[in-house]
Amino acid sequence: MAGSPAAVVSAGALAGVLAFLKDDPETGFAFLMDLAAADYLKFPSPRPGRFAVSYQLYSPKLGARLCVKAYLPAENPSLPTASGLWAGADWFEREAWDMYGIRFEGHPNLKRILMYEEFEGHALRKDYPLGRMQPLVPMRDAIDYEKVRQQSRRASNPS
Amino acid sequence: MPLGLEQKDPAAARAGEDEFRIEPTAINMGPSHPAMHGTIRLMLKLDGEKVVWADVEIGYLHRAFEKTVEHKTWNQAVPYTDRLNYCSPLINNVGYALAVEKLLGVEAPERCQYIRVIMSELSRVADHLTCIGASAMEMGAFTAFLYFIKAREYIWQLIEEVTGARLTISYTRVGGVTKDLPLNFGERFAFVAGKTREALAEVDALLSRNRIFLDRTRGVGVMPADRAVQYGFTGPMLRASGVDYDVRRNFPYLVYDRLRFEVPVATEGDNYARYRVRLEEMRQSLSIVEQALEGMPEGPVNVADPRVALPDKKDVYTNIEALMNHFKLLMPGHGIRPPAGEVYQAVEGANGELGFWVISDGSDRPYRVRVRPPCFALMSGLEEMIVGGQVADVIATFGSVNMIAGELDR
Amino acid sequence: MTEDTLQDAVLTTRLDKVLGWARKYSLFNYPFVTACCGMEYMATSSSHYDTDRFGAVFPRFSPRQADLLMVVGTVNHKQAPVLKRIYDQMCEPKWVVAFGVCATSGGFYQNYATVPGVDCVIPVDMYIPGCPPRPETVIDALMKLQERIQGQKQALV
User: Fold this and answer.
1) Can you give the pLDDT at residue B288?
2) Fewest CB atoms less than 10 Å from the CB: which of A46, A72, B159, C61?
3) 3-class secondary structure for B33-74?
């Protein structure tokens, strides 16, 4: 595998590892730069789980970055929340829930953030089609939606 | 029954008070509001003029950047990155290109790296001009806005001369940039820098010691350093709170380690400190461009690797190898194919750390492109900055965050 | 007798024409700014290009006071009800300009989140192409819209 290294941690051990990294005076990873999820459903080589959540940490003390990653199963993916450690994790976790349906246990306010409450499904999952719209207001009949959808499908899969 | 308050039992007296208590007023700002440059909805509860509760709702410009890019080839994703932070599109382009190059294990030629630095810094100046101009306008200082937009117009004209477009420029490619700088770039930049410095000096004189501006910004929207770190603030907002962190210096990329520049830091963490930091950063950026223009070597602007860079047009028309190479790079199902893997690449965007977490499955399309938008962390801390303040200060504080909906919602 | 006294002081015209003339030079616009095009909108309305020169496009941030709705930028499905509501709040006569290609057709955002053109939500009078359109294009479109307003049958209510 090319690219940056990541420390893969089991979902059960994650909370302890993150707390240690943040609070131990020798590590001091005070920044949670990013928390992002990914869906490995269509990944060619096998992965330990369908979903993964990565935490990009930065320690001003060590002047170093660290990527911590946990794989999650396809059914009912869930992780303990990190919002108690970093306040910034609150919104990042809401986004991961909104886009991938990953539940963060103990999160104070786990609801959709980018999409609207009426939206069904989780848009960034690999099995959600790119063009499936869920309009909130009735669309005027200016355009044939099935046709638009087909065009968009064709544009995204030219083969 | 004798009348008088002393006869009333205390519980009943309190109940009477409750009857006359003023309920908090709920107001809604946005998503289409004159002072919300960008689409975001703020729900506030006010006790008189004081904000006692706030909720920030985002997502009104969610355009499915991350999903769409999964269906495009590596180079086709570049135009989408333009529209993330549309105030400084060049920095997004550079960040994305660096991430993919890291996956591929190639490095852009030296001249290209200098060009990328120059264009990033120009973009940063344009972004800060817009931010200060717009937030000053919302506080009533319309002149500052007009001066800064005028200065930005000169920068945009320069950017257009280089890239061919004013705003959505799609300038970088994996392994290089689309074209070299024009011949008279140095002269033109000297003119633009002069105009920008003039505008900076004018607005500095108009605002920095202006009584009204000081009252509206000083001690308003304070974010202490420890809370800023908690929220993952980066960029000018973090530095205004007194934490000295700049990706350009802490994790140098391109040729930033060869250039001398100061990272301005303030300690107050209020709107005024953010304004001062941004003002100083623009001066530093202009000086960085001047240094880069001096140190820039001659040479190619694209990598020579035929698996990445398109061949020269002249060769495509005259010899078969170059023609085949051209098609191999552009045909669906072929093209650039980084090895399977993932990278996290951060650059210093105008609002802070702009990170790209890119996963490749070895095909010609990205498997996943995650953007770490600096605004996202900043906006999650907005609630804390506005609760407890006056309702009019919401506008000043929101302006100092420089929220760009394009990168916030993606 | 009246003709002698008044001479050149009176100009006769059709009511339609004079109303059209008044309306086209007093366009108050509501900038529904959502995205990147907003940057060009700023540039267009500031001193460098200055759309006020054309007697048009004085921004009013209340839909009740505006007669030109400029949809500047991408509208997504979360935003669409807001746009519809603002359009419904505007008084007649009203015109709508789709500023930029996202407002026109969704542009290159053909996906689950984006409305493929605001004409799926509200009727549109003028489409401005470009991603984002240059200020010159915007000014051209405004002048064309003014021409159209002059030429159309004027409602009297």
Assistant:
1) 92
2) A46
3) CCCCCCCCEEEEEEECCEEEEEEEECCCCCCCHHHHHCCCCC
CATH number, domain containing residue C95: 3.40.50.12280
Architecture of B57-303+337-409 per CATH? Answer: Orthogonal Bundle (1.10)
Cis peptide before C63 (omega within 30 of 0): no
Q: How many domains does chain C have?
A: 1
Give the mutation candidate from C75, C76, C77 for the A interface (greatest A CB count, under 10 A): C77
- Supply the DSSP symbol for C111: S
Q: Is residue C69 in a domain?
A: yes
Mean pLDDT of B370-391: 90
Residue C114, beta-bridge partner list = C76
Predicted interface score ipTM higher than 0.90: no
User: Does residue C60 lie within any of the structural domains?
Assistant: yes
Residues C31/C41, Cβ–Cβ less than 8 Å: yes
**Residue A105 — φ and ψ, nearest 5°?**
-65, 135
What is the number of other CB atoms lying within 10 angstroms of the CB of residue A158?
Answer: 9
Does the distance separating the beta carbons of C81 and A137 come in below 8 Å? yes
From chain A, the residues in CB contact with B231 under 8 A are 86-88
What's this model's pTM, rounded to 2 decimal places?
Answer: 0.87
Interface contact A140-C110, CB threshold 8 A: no
In B, residues 2-41, which contact A (CB 8 Å cutoff)? none
**Region B142-150 average pLDDT:** 88
